[in-house]
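Example record

Each entry pairs one chain with its bound ligand, S-adenosylmethionine.
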Amino acid sequence: MSDWNANQYLKFEDERTRPPRDLIAQIPLARAGRVFDLGCGPGNSTELLVARYPDAEVIGLDSSPDMLRQARERLPQCTFVQADLTGWTPPAGTDLLFANASFQWLPDHEAVLRRMLQALAPGGVLAVQMPDNVDEPALTLMSAVAAHGPWAGNPALAAAARLPLPRPEAYYDLLKPLSARLDIWRTVYMHVMEGHGAIVEWFKGSALRPFLDALDPAMRADFLAAYLAQIEQHYGTRHDGRVLLPFPRVFLVAVR
Ligand SMILES: C[S@@+](CC[C@H](N)C(=O)[O-])C[C@H]1O[C@@H](n2cnc3c(N)ncnc32)[C@H](O)[C@@H]1O
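Structure tokens for the complex follow.
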């Protein structure tokens, strides 16, 4: 997949940074010595961790050069590391592993979650938030548009949709045997979008990326126009011209 685009992602920084705020509020650690922000992106979640744990060594980790470039500019006092989470294990002495909106991109993320939690010493915390939205129209419409049109039959498009997350109960069975305490919740945010085009812009920074990567540049504009037409049909306009984007997310806070 092509590199992430930090500027596109940050077009909705306020909305995208609310879930990590809500996640941090539930972390039962008064102090931390070493904190990792896994899939730190442009540093928006890292900044929250620095504010919550001002005395900690806060390290951001990401596989995207563009995201890391922005994160380093934003927080020159922090260390940022380029690495792939699928093969990464936290070093000894880690108090908190924080991952906002990154684990849903990993193949077999359940195995990675278990490995990370296992690597923590007793009292260490793994705190994770993942979008749980693959059944929302905004996501199912990507596949519907991909299935009809001049691009239909492109195998990369057929493989572009993210898989659904396991149910919260499955995370309980997966992580509770390794946890002294486990807190799981699921929330539907109602993001207020300026219009239907804003929904398209939002997902150009995340779930649309694998679809757009699969198309040659000449077809991308037509694909996006077809997607926008579908979004207009499926999301109503509110009294003030804005559009609500329901966005379910699942949260996990595990204490080793
Ligand atoms: C949706 S952004 C989240 C950014 C930030 N944590 C936030 O709270 O908004 C997901 C990030 O996960 C990173 N990512 C995806 N797969 C990864 C992997 N296998 N290893 C490391 N980082 C990964 C992406 O590069 C991207 O920066």
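The beta strands are 34-38, 57-62, 79-82, 96-100, 125-131, 181-193, 243-255.
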